User: Fold this.
Amino acid sequence: MAKRELEPLLWLLFSAGGVLSALLMPSLIVLFGVAIPLQWVHHTPYTRLLAVLHNPLTRVALFALCMLSLFHWAHRFRYTLYDGLQIKHLNELINTFCYGGAIAGSLAAGYWLSRL
Amino acid sequence: MIDPLRPHAVYHDYHPRWLRRRVSTYWWLERWPYVKFILREISSVFVAWFVLYLILLLRAMNRNAVAYQEFLDWSTRPWVLLLNVISAFFIVFHSITWLNLAPKAMVVHAPGGRRVPPTVIALSNYAALVVASVLVAWLLLGG
Assistant:
């Protein structure tokens, strides 16, 4: 079955996303989610942020971060619903929501990154 | 009714009930390690939220400086800020538990065949976290 063959790939995406998000997200969320809104630091000027985003390396790194983190979430969340809440009868719906969401988010990230 | 092929087989009208205790939906509230396990799993939801937040930022950056400023204003709204503060805690929790677990999942052998001690792997992971964080801060704030 196709599903069985997909499983190792999904695990791979899960752990790759786990590593990338563990390394890059703490600083990014503390900065953009907390420190800048609370004005602990000056926000990055538009032109500077644009220059950083124009670097191909940043774009590749950000796309990998977004895509892999979303697949990390999809896989982990799916199993949380299985084991934690014992929702096994909604398998199809949960899989569609998780992996569909991950694919949609990856496409959105890729779209906005490529148009910069 | 006797099956001619298996004359000694015994049949029951009903399937015997197995002794199987029902597990409560909230089984994970019983002990701290279980709660920690679920919190670790839930951290992925905040990871996903932050990706969405980054996508919104990228969308604003695609438009113009005004849209970027609007995004920054939106990020100071109480509910967005609260969600981001909670997400920051969960993401740091995810980062620490993930990097702590890595040496257990990954056994590295040095060229001589000796196993690299788990603490060395954990420390190098934390070093990578520090380097990545400094790089992000330097790109966005430094100079």
Residues 78 and 141 of chain B are 24 Å apart (CA to CA).
